[in-house]
Automatic annotation (TrEMBL):
InterPro entries: AAA+_ATPase, ABC_transporter-like_ATP-bd, P-loop_NTPase. Residues 3-230 form the ABC transporter domain. CDD domains: ABC_DR_subfamily_A. This is ABC-2 type transport system ATP-binding protein. It comes from Parapedobacter koreensis.
Length: 237
């Protein structure tokens, strides 16, 4: 019940980006949200985070309807948007203090220090964001997303463009976070899904074409692995 999407439609002017999608992401599990470029992943995540409006349908975060009670739904949600927009001129501590202020977090400095520790930012915490490597910038984005300790995390391609060392660190962090939270994660890296996700939803041309627990892949499909299944489902029909 942590993220529930029901019959969701979204059109950009006349272009239908989502054509009635429904799925559920469950607490304590990481859901890999997969699909080719332009399938509708970011659109879905933006709607859930309240960044853009839906056309029709319903969605809830932590049991709270995102239209009827948008502010309350957002309190329970941490969102890392695609391309992780950050204020490059800010220092790490400053950016987190700004985010803490927005969320009205009590004992601000203690929580910032805690999150800096959790996200492995201690060695970089006194730098400007513009001085950080891409991997550390992702950590700042994640730190901002988890600062208010939301039950639900929406991460739009959190590992894109990272080198293998940075990848490993960020994946370990997401896996750790996923033990206690509901995580909806989009990625194009099938290996990553196999490494950290519990559930898989595949979207293609604005429609859900697969929705299953990863452990059931061999029982449900004859494809050799997730990549083979993804390619078969998104290049036919
Ligand atoms: N602001 C917009 N205006 C018009 N069309 C848009 C807009 N944003 C997205 N679209 C279109 O909606 C569809 C879904 O796009 P979306 O960004 O949700 O896909 P995605 O699955 O996140 O893709 P990618 O993997 O490339 O990030 C695409 O056809 C895209 O061109």
């Amino acid at each position: 019940m942590s993220i529930h999407v029901s019959n969701l439609y979204k059109s950009y002017n006349t272009h239908p980006a989502l054509k009635g999608i429904s799925f559920t992401a469950k607490p304590g599990r990481i859901l890999g949200f997969l699909g080719p470029n332009g399938a509708g992943k970011s659109t879905t995540m933006k709607i859930l985070s309240g960044s853009i409006a839906l056309t029709t349908g319903t969605a809830s975060v932590y049991g709270i309807d995102i239209l009827q009670n948008a502010l309350e739904a957002r309190r329970h949600l941490g969102y890392l948007p695609e391309n992780n927009p950050l204020y490059l001129d800010m220092y790490v501590q400053e950016a987190l203090a700004f985010a803490a202020e927005m969320h009205h977090i009590p004992h601000k400095q203690a929580r910032i220090s805690e999150v800096i520790g959790m996200t492995g930012l201690i060695p970089e915490q006194h730098k400007k964001i513009s001085q950080l490597s891409k991997g550390y910038r992702q950590r700042v984005g994640l730190a901002q997303a988890i600062l208010h300790d939301p039950e639900v995390l929406i991460l739009d391609e959190p590992t894109s463009g990272l080198d293998p060392n940075q990848l490993q660190g960020i994946r370990a962090l997401i896996k750790q976070l996923g033990k206690a939270k509901t995580v909806l994660l989009s990625t194009h890296i099938m290996q990553e899904v196999e490494a950290i996700c519990d559930d898989v939803v595949i979207i293609h041309q604005g429609q859900i074409i697969a929705d299953f627990p990863l452990s059931e892949l061999p029982m449900r499909y004859t494809d050799a692995n997730l990549e083979a299944l993804f390619i078969r489902l998104t290049t036919t029909g």
